[in-house]
């Protein structure tokens, strides 16, 4: 079975949400903050799980630009200057399908580190 492909991508700047519809019929509303703190870039993820860098203070981050990368994904340019990491279609689909669990794990990690979502 082929990986889900996006059929529509819409940035809602005012609400800071990226809406991604897939050919599976699913549509995900992904907050910019969620995408920023889960960026697939080496700057965020490191080069292995032990090198992952906790992102904090990103509550008000927005997406400044969306740049296509071939036929497999997009580069999201965030207004805090972060512009590395390619969000492949499979990464976006995974972030959408596991959003609740990933978000809660992030909030738990912030609390354990004594950090805040606020800038």
What's the rounded overall pLDDT mean? 96
Low-confidence stretches: none
Major beta sheet summary: 3 strands, antiparallel
Strand arrangement, major sheet: 1-2-3
Determine the number of helices (DSSP H or I, runs of at least 4 residues).
4
Principal-axes shape call: globular
Over the alpha carbons, how many angstroms does the gyration radius reach?
Answer: 14 Å
Count the strands? 6
SSE run? EEEHHEEEHH
Percent in helix: 25-40%
Beta-strand percentage range: 25-35%
Structural class: alpha+beta
How far is it from the N-terminal to the C-terminal residue, by CA?
A: 42 Å
How does this structure look, described?
- The chain starts with 5 loop residues before the first strand and ends in a 6-residue tail after the last helix.
- The protein is globular.
- The protein is built from four helices and six strands; from the N terminus they run E-E-E-H-H-E-E-E-H-H.
- A three-stranded antiparallel beta sheet has the order 1-2-3.
- It has 119 residues and is an alpha+beta fold.
- The longest helix is centred in the last third of the chain and has 15 residues.
């Amino acid at each position: 079975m082929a990986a889900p492909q996006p059929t529509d991508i819409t940035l809602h700047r005012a609400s800071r949400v990226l809406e991604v519809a897939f050919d599976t019929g699913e549509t995900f509303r992904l907050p910019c903050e969620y995408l920023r703190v889960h960026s697939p870039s080496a700057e965020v993820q490191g080069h292995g799980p032990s090198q992952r860098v906790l992102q904090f203070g990103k509550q008000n981050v927005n997406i400044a630009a969306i740049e296509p990368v071939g036929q497999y994904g997009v580069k999201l340019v965030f207004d805090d200057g972060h512009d590395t990491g390619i969000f492949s279609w499979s990464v976006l689909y995974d972030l959408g399908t596991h959003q609740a669990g990933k978000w809660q794990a992030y909030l738990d990690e912030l609390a354990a580190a004594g950090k805040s979502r606020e800038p």
